[in-house]
Amino acid sequence: MATLSIPNPVPSAIEDAEKLRKAFQGWGTDEKAMIAVLAHRDAAQRKQIKIAYEEQYKEKLLKRIESEISGHFERAVYRWIFDPVERQAIMANIAIKNKVVDFPVIIEIACINSSNELLAVKQVYQLLYKHSMEEDVASHATGDFRKLLFALVGTYRYDGEEINTELAKTEAKILNDAITKGEYNSDEIIRILSTRSKAQLQATFNCYKDAHNLSITKALSTKTPNDFVIALRSAIRCRTTPTKYFEKVLRNILQKSGMDEDALTRVIVMHAEKDLKEIKELFQTRANMTLEQAVAKKTSGDYENFLLALIGN
């Protein structure tokens, strides 16, 4: 479930556009007023606000926001403004065009979406950038990462619940053979992970655990970890247990030294309208503090207030 808190009744898009305009005028920006509007409207409502603002004031809302605020707060608001599909297309492009491809972003987008949802993201990506996502992954990723990421974004997977038990047993053995030999970049591992349905993968991983008394992710973590093995484990968790995956991402960000604001923003912005409530509840169980407390401890100012609003504080 979402954590987004929307007022009832909801003001009209024209009223919200007026509130934003007032927040931008005068000496300095009224960030509190901005947050009160933008952090409490869903994607459809934000789209109507953007249309109303631009029709009424003859300027691009995003351009105005970029000129009014800065830093992590600006990046969080900018990403939030877009609808979920367009946001993912933009974030995928940024991740791909990085000096080194930001593989967690691509893995998350490729693995948490259904086949139809991923197809929608790729269609918007192509409209925005005049290249396919697959083309850009192939151009910018290298080596084993290119094989894995290209396979994950390029496959239209079956989303149903039917499974083939014998196939699960066979492919569990294939996975074990490759892992035992340390062949983590095996074409067979990539094929199974990228083409099988979530239900079929879960059946395969259950067979693996039954046969070896070890989960597939633990089997991949028993050797000295490297980035590619970490990517495989991330893909497995995203495809089979996404709530656990994102809870752990948040815990790693918020409970360790240092701070990855981009990753924190990504998880909260991408999930506030979707399933952040479940992620938040699991975080509290495992971290012994609420997500709100952890975010407040590691962030500050308008950035903190905006994230807490999305979390549902």
TrEMBL record:
GO terms for cellular component: cytoplasm; plasma membrane. The keyword Calcium applies. PROSITE patterns: ANNEXIN_2. InterPro entries: Annexin, Annexin_repeat, Annexin_sf, AnnexinD_plant. Ca(2+) binds at F24, G26, G28, E68, K256, G258, A296, T299, E304. GO terms for molecular function: calcium ion binding; calcium-dependent phospholipid binding; phosphatidylserine binding. GO terms for biological process: response to cold; response to heat; response to salt stress; response to water deprivation. It comes from the Eukaryota. Keywords: Annexin, Calcium, Calcium/phospholipid-binding, Metal-binding, Repeat. This is Annexin. It comes from Rhynchospora pubera. The lineage of its organism: Eukaryota, Viridiplantae, Streptophyta, Embryophyta, Tracheophyta.
